[in-house]
Specification:
Layout: H1 2-26, H2 34-55, H3 59-88, H4 90-93, H5 109-117, H6 121-125
Length: about 140
Amino acid sequence: MIEYVQSALLIIAAILTIISAIGFLSLGKETKNVVYARIHIIGIFDVACIIAMIAIGQYLLAGIYFILAPFIAHAIANAYWKKEDRENNLDLQNVEVEVDENHPFFHPKEKMQALESEDSEKLKADERFSVTTLEIDEDE
């Protein structure tokens, strides 16, 4: 009886793998948010692998994989959203940040660019922000 249950679970895992492989291969690169769609399809692969591990008696490994797979998928999606999606999506690049004019450390980007572009003698002669170095003699 146990062999029949194991066989049925392996067949279910194989069917899920075939279905998700067809979906993964048929997904075009021109699809909007293709990375998120691929991560979703890979989730079906994950379920198939968990079912297969349970079928062959690797319960601890299946449990660990069951717990870690969503975290890994979330990390990949989050990394894509923070890097690639922001570079390619113009709406995410134009985020307006409200800056308090009286704050001593945060200044608007335009104000900083204007200060950097100024050829001011006051900025050049300001000795309060000079950089000094400390020389260390290693021979002693």
